[in-house]
Amino acid sequence: MNQSNCPVPKDQQPTNEFIELSKSKIFSWPKSKKSFLFILLKFWAVTFFVFVIISSGSVYFETSTLRYVLLSFFSSLSLPFLFSVRLYLGWNHIFKRLTSEKVEYEESGWYDGQIWIKPVKLKEKESLIASLEVKPILKNLTQFISLIIIFALIGVLLFQKNYL
């Protein structure tokens, strides 16, 4: 944005917010589908190990080990799910700011909210950034969240019907 025409503070401009989020160590992970999958798998494996240790303290663990290992498997999906949802919410916020026709900003605090209407050229530039950069990230995150939900539902169905 041209600083002379734009009243929005530099750190609240959607393009700059996108750049800052892209530079963020954690929020940059979903940019690559394979590396994000690897990170989620590592995160899940550590969580699974912790959940197995916790469930091994149960008295019933000795009688039905398979049941408690599978219970740990499915319940350990909760932390990668929450992590993925947090990433999705952050990227979705940036996507909405980039595609919006107006920029809401605050000059000095929460009580003085202002609205600035983007010029056409800037709106086109930010829409292009949103569709080429942010939309694929949101698509990847949606796929991972859906996959985690499917695994969790399979686990709930297995334990609900007492197949184990």
Structure description:
This protein has helices spanning 14-23, 33-55, 65-75, 78-99, 120-160, and strands at residues 102-106, 113-117. The chain is mainly α. The chain has one domain (10-160). A two-stranded antiparallel ribbon has the order 1-2.
Summarize the structure.
With 164 residues, the protein is mainly alpha-helical. It contains five helices and two strands, in the order ααααββα. It has one domain (10-160).
Question: Key features?
Answer:
elongated; 164 residues; mainly alpha; two-stranded antiparallel ribbon; 6% strand
- Give unreliable regions as ranges: none
Determine the N-to-C terminus distance: 60 Å
> Structural class of the secondary elements?
mainly alpha
State the order of secondary-structure elements, H for helix, E for strand.
HHHHEEH
Count of helical stretches:
5
Integer tally of domains: 1
What share of residues are in beta strands? 5-15%
Count of DSSP E strands?
A: 2
Amount of helix: 55-70%
